[in-house]
């Protein structure tokens, strides 16, 4: 079986991917609503530092791909992603979809479910704008609170239909870790199988029972804000991850750092994209994770999530 990732440089055969992936990152983004320019990764000002970090992680840890979940309304820049991928030597998977409601562009309110679905399918099949870059994942599709708003529910439904129509998988943004079960209900009701779904930011929700329930239904559980100590300690993240592993769901965990502000870059004194490899995974190994488990969670799981492949095929 040949399974491929859809990267910004074209299809990539997963059989050649031997190192870890970052399952939820941002390389270029603009979430600045207040004018403070903190929630920005600029394609000119910050891209050289981003590129340098990825290149260093490829050399030090074998970083094999980055899943870049900046979507419509988040300052997405496919041409900049293509440059970063080419210059760093790290493949990048670009995304399409819509973030949670405070960041919805006007097109969301102006479109019904069918129109939103068509917008995503068109982008997945023909490329983002005129760039020719094809999205390889739908995400990060957002909601906030325990139940998505009507507009967020419409986006989730449209995104699930587009995923089903195109064969892509879908990653969510569950604001502060809340609303994952409701997201999964909406997505599966729209026809998307749970094993094509990753529920985001679950490391911000200190509720192992919810994580077990999501995994038991077949969805991926993303512990994807590793190193963001302002939201949650890595000690808590590790405890939650170990709980999920102890419950028998190692094949449903995903890990990433969700670098989303330029102050998080290593060059600016932040934790950087490498925090997962340099800090968190050593702690996880000290807590008992062996090489095979680390490989499962950081390589096989994200590849299986993205492609829908069976474990044995990765």
UniProtKB/TrEMBL annotation:
A Pfam family recorded for this sequence: PTE
Fetch the InterPro entries from UniProt.
Metal_Hydrolase, Phosphotriesterase
Which note does the record give on the cofactor?
Binds 2 divalent metal cations per subunit.
Which Gene Ontology molecular function entries are recorded, alphabetically? Answer: hydrolase activity; zinc ion binding
Q: Enumerate the UniProt keywords alphabetically.
A: Hydrolase, Metal-binding
* Chain positions recorded as a divalent metal cation 1 binding sites: 24, 26, 140, 258
The record lists the organism as: Streptomyces montanisoli
Q: What is this protein called?
A: Phosphotriesterase
| Binding-site residues for a divalent metal cation 2, renumbered to this chain | 140, 173, 201
Q: Which domain of life is it from?
A: Bacteria
* Cofactor section: a divalent metal cation
Q: Describe the family membership recorded for this protein in Swiss-Prot or TrEMBL.
A: Belongs to the metallo-dependent hydrolases superfamily. Phosphotriesterase family.
Family matches, as SUPFAM superfamilies: Metallo-dependent hydrolases
């Amino acid at each position: 079986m040949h399974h491929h990732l859809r990267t910004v440089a074209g299809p990539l055969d997963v059989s050649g991917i031997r190192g870890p992936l970052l399952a939820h990152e941002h390389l270029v983004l603009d979430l600045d609503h207040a004018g403070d320019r903190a929630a920005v990764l600029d394609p000119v000002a910050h891209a050289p530092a981003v590129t340098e970090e990825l290149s260093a992680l490829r050399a030090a840890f074998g970083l094999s791909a980055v899943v870049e979940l900046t979507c419509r309304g988040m300052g997405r820049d496919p041409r900049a992603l293509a440059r970063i991928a080419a210059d760093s030597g790290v493949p990048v998977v670009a995304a399409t979809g819509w973030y949670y409601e405070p960041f919805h562009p006007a097109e969301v309110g102006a479109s019904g479910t069918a129109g939103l679905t068509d917008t995503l399918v068109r982008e997945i099949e023909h490329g983002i704008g005129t760039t020719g870059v094809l999205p390889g994942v739908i995400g990060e599709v957002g909601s906030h609170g325990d139940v998505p708003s009507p507009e967020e529910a419409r986006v989730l439904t449209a995104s699930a239909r587009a995923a089903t129509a195109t064969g892509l998988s879908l990653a969510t943004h569950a604001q502060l870790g809340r609303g994952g079960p409701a997201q999964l209900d909406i997505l599966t009701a729209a026809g998307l199988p749970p094993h094509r779904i990753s529920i985001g930011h679950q490391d911000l929700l200190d509720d192992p029972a919810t994580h077990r329930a999501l995994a038991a239904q077949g969805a991926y559980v993303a512990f994807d804000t590793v190193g963001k100590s302002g939201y949650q300690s890595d000690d808590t993240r590790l405890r939650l991850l170990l709980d999920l592993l102890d419950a028998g769901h190692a094949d449903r965990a995903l890990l990433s750092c969700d670098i989303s502000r330029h102050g998080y870059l290593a060059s600016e004194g932040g934790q950087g994209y490498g925090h997962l490899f340099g800090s968190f995974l050593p702690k996880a190994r000290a807590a008992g994770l062996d090489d095979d488990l680390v490989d499962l969670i950081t390589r096989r799981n994200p590849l299986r999530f993205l492609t829908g492949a069976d474990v044995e095929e990765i």
